[in-house]
Structures are given as structure tokens and as C-alpha cells.
Amino acid sequence: MWPLAAFARVKFDVYNAMRFFLIRFLAMLAVLGALTLSMPASAGTWRVNVENDRIANTDRHYSNGFRLGWVSDKTDGSDLPEVRDVLNFLYPLADVRAGRVGLELGHNIFTPGDTEARQLISNDRPYAGWLYGAASLYAETGEGFDDYFTETLDKVALEIGVVGPAALGEEVQNEFHRAISVATSNGWDNQLKNEPGINFIAERKWRAEPFRFWGLEADAIPHVGASLGNVYTHVSGGAIARFGQQLSIDYGPPLIRPNLSGYSAIEHTEGLAWYGFAGVDGRWSLRNIFLDGNTFQDSHSIDKEPLVGDFVAGVAIVYGRARLSFTHVMRTKEFKGQDQADRFGSVSLSIRF
Question: What residue ranges define each of the domains in the chain, with the CATH number in brackets?
Fold first, then answer.
């Protein structure tokens, strides 16, 4: 009987863990809701991200990503003491200058390289969709290190969603392919099974005053982060280098996780601001449901590579209250036996109201 007892204990522990994060997610939502209600409905930055492998002239693996998000304008907590209390609790030793909150709705699609085959392709990644919502809390502080980085940006977030047929990956991909007269993917009967997903995310970025010369600016923004959940569990780190004008408008362009992530919010600028950028993000992955398969059910899976790197390059243009960015991403091999690295493109539009 001991295997049944062990299985029951595992299910009980998973239930307790899910309940632990759910309680904290609801508490975060309460804080976000209170802050949102205290602001004008239009206050903040709206953003839409589209990532697709066809932008980089490929058609495999990370096939498509879409994210619609909103992040509030800055608040120092004087208009809402509860938010100030939360920030001071999270950063008791830091000089918290301002906070923001954010809400997101996202959808990602993953496929194997051969989308014509109807049978299971055992040596390639599974079909999968990921539909999720997220709530975020940002804190901008004045602490740095080595007397060089004078500003930091922290983000804590909780994503809750679903993996499997309920995520509508097959419907979204194939209906879009039909609309643009592209062949549909035939192997969706082999996709991951339905499973609720939860990720707790923490990130920190550092920013310094840019180096100025000939009317131009240059800077570098290092970052570290971690994700804990049944969808993604990993630690990450890297940096982005930028070259252009008025770099203080943001912390780099936003990308869809688990890519090197920028900042959704933008500061208002008079006239034109722009920058080119290049960066790298390395992840040590302990769990990736889109490679490891379902957590509580048998499903297709593939042996993942524990270390994965993303290399990005692109350009961002800001005029007034709008930012448009284009990014090309190269991702190293994610699983054993993968033929070659992946590439995809990203387009992001942010508008601050």
C-alpha cells in the first residue's frame, strides 16, 4: 500500500503548494485592484506583443506568442498607503522611489518541427498551448552596487493559466493559418493534456546614468531573475546594451517570457527617441512543461537541455507617448537531439495614455 500512500502524500503536498501561491496571488490582486481603482481608467501604458517564428523565416518549436498588457503610471504610495506599506515590507532596506502595478493576458503556442505528420513524433518537442493571465508589482529603488548602478527595477509577478486543449493552441494556430492560406498543423491530437499552470516570477534590473558622447548615449542593463512553478522553474541572468538617444525612457523593450524581458512602461518624451540594442539571457532550467510534459499525467516529453541562452538584437523607436520595437531572437538548443538553434521575431507596440 505504500505506493498509494506516497502518491496521496505527493498530491497533498502539491495541493498545499498550489493553495499557498493562490492565497498570495489573491492578496496581490487585492492590492492591485485597490491601486487600479485609485487611478484614472486611462492612466498607464498599454502594450501588445506579437512573437512568431515566421518573422524570422522559420516554422518550428516556439511558433507564436501574443501578450496584451497594461502597467500603471508611477505612484509613491502617498495616494494609496496600502501600496506603500507593501513596497516597504518587500524592500525594508531600500529607498523605494515609486511603484507600479501591471496586468497581462498571454497566449503561447509550441509545435515540433514537422507539422505535417499526424502521428506522435517521439524525438521532437510536444505540441502545446499556454493561455494565462498575470498580475505584477514593480518597485523602482535607488540602490545599486559598485557605486555605478544608481537605479534598480524589481518585478514580482504571478501567472495563472492552463496548458493543453483548453488553451486553444490548435484552434488559434490552424484558424490563423487558414486565414493566411498557410498549411495547418496536423499533429495536435498529440498535444499535452489539460493542466492548470502557475508561475511565481521575480526579476531585478540595474541601470546607471548613460555614457554620453557626440549627442548620443550608451548604457548596459544587467539583470537576474527566477521563476518557480509547474510551467517554468529556472534561474536566469544576463544583460542588454543600448545605443541611441534619451535612454532613460525605459529599461529596454518588452518580450514575452521566458525571453530576456524589458519594461512595458515608457516615460513621455518630447520629439523622437530611439535606440539599438543587443543582449543575452542565460537560463538554468529545472522544469519546462513544454519539454518535460505534464506534471500529474503521462504525456509526450523530450529530454531538455538544462542550459539555454537567448541572444537578441533590434531597435526601438519612441515618439511622444508611443514606442515601437522590433527584435530578432536566436535561442540555443532546448532539447537533446535538436538539429539547430531556433530563431523568431518580435514586434511590440506600447502607448502611454
Answer: 2-352 (2.40.128.140)
